Amino acid sequence: MHGFKSFVTLGLACLAAWASPIAPDYDNRRSIADQSGAALSERAVPNTVPVRLWTGLGDGTNIKPTFIATLSTGILGTPSQADLLEYARKAYENMMTQKEIGKRKSSTYLVAALFIPTTRSIYICSVPDGPAITRIKTNGTTDAPAWWSQVKDRTPSLEVHAEDGAAYLYESSLTTKLAAGATYPAGSFIVAWGKFESQMVAQRARLCSGGGQRPLNPPCSVVFGNLHVGF
Question: Which positions carry the signal peptide feature in this UniProt record (predicted)?
């Protein structure tokens, strides 16, 4: 009887371990490669991650395009950071096939992917251009108050990055808005993928920091750190 009870106890423990999701460690001091753990890529990341032109922004949408996507992770739950990077990479690849991409004057092509566990969704945005910049900066205080409270005094003031666009997409989708100064849900994290003007090959990109003679203050690492978003 004692052996039977031990067998049942062991079986229940194994079942509980199997059913419980393993949350990755989102320590901002470590690289994605160090944190990826057991990637779910084979079953969690689709073969194609389609993006679409951000429309409804008024004049210039096609001339100065911005590409977006909102994807549900559904029953697959929390992706690893390696998985999220795959989402960003595949979104980038899809963006580069869009006919409007050739209308961008800049040769910097990046996308950011933000995962929010409470919505079980991934919010993807390319570097905002033209009308998208105007929409984000004009409506940021009401549509995305938590993010806006972190960037409202940023210099250079005209800088809006792919990471900012992803944050705006998330907050603007909420019926009940986050308060200014609020943080994002525990377990949120963000990655970026693409290439800058000086690069020949797309790769994982560090979060926005400006650079050269125009350093960003605060950089995205500070903004998203204050929002409690891993990267």
Answer: 1-19
